[in-house]
Specification:
This protein is α/β, with parallel strands linked by helices. The protein contains five helices and seven strands, in the order H-E-E-E-H-E-H-E-H-E-E-H. The chain is 40% helix and 17% strand. The strands form two sheets. It has a five-stranded mixed sheet. A two-stranded antiparallel sheet has the order 1-2. The mean pLDDT is 89.
């Protein structure tokens, strides 16, 4: 009986240790999304100001696009922002922003200081659209095909390596794919 009392905690400790050891080998930026190859959620977000159009799911049909969920309060968003400006200048695909739970004046100041890579921005003040996209934290970026289907989800700041080896090749592949009339 004493042996069982001794082995039970040891066995539990080993199982928990194995669980965490396996978990530490996983890439946290590779969070699976149930939305891959499905249409973007239906949404219609107002613009942050009167000078531009907002963003809706209808805007994501017809061309391959990038949807970037961001906020002025987000450190990772600040890290990836210079690269988003470069990507926008290249014109590979339009970048649309979903501004997540931000204050209008904070967003305006952030864009004025850092630049604006977004073709359209929709304000997701209550976070409902981010929830529908399955966002777990900003920044998150989605590649959307011409039919308005999510084809890739990137969690965390986009690095130059992410852009050159994963995102840009996927966008080019989607742009060169034959159009499909089915959605």
């Amino acid at each position: 009986m004493k042996r069982i009392i001794f082995l039970a905690p040891l066995s539990l400790f080993l199982l928990v240790g194995l669980y965490f050891a396996v978990g530490l080998t996983r890439d946290p930026s590779r969070i699976p999304s149930t939305l891959i190859d499905r249409p973007v959620p239906v949404f219609d977000l107002a613009a942050p100001d009167g000078g531009r159009a907002g963003l809706s799911s209808r805007d994501l049909v017809g061309e391959v696009s990038i949807v970037n969920v961001f906020g002025s309060w987000c450190i990772g968003c600040t890290v990836e922002h210079p690269l988003l400006l470069e990507i926008a200048d290249e014109g590979v695909a339009p970048i649309h922003g979903v501004n997540w739970k931000d204050k209008p004046e904070a967003l305006a100041d952030w864009l004025a200081r850092r630049g604006d890579p977004y073709a359209r921005i929709g304000v997701d003040a209550d976070g409902r659209t981010a929830i529908d996209f399955g966002v777990t934290g900003a920044p998150e970026t989605f590649i959307v095909d011409r039919q308005g289907r999510i084809r890739h989800k990137h969690v965390g700041p986009i690095s130059r390596d992410d852009w050159e080896t994963v995102l840009r090749p996927l966008i080019e592949e989607l742009k060169n794919a034959p159009s499909s009339s089915s959605s």
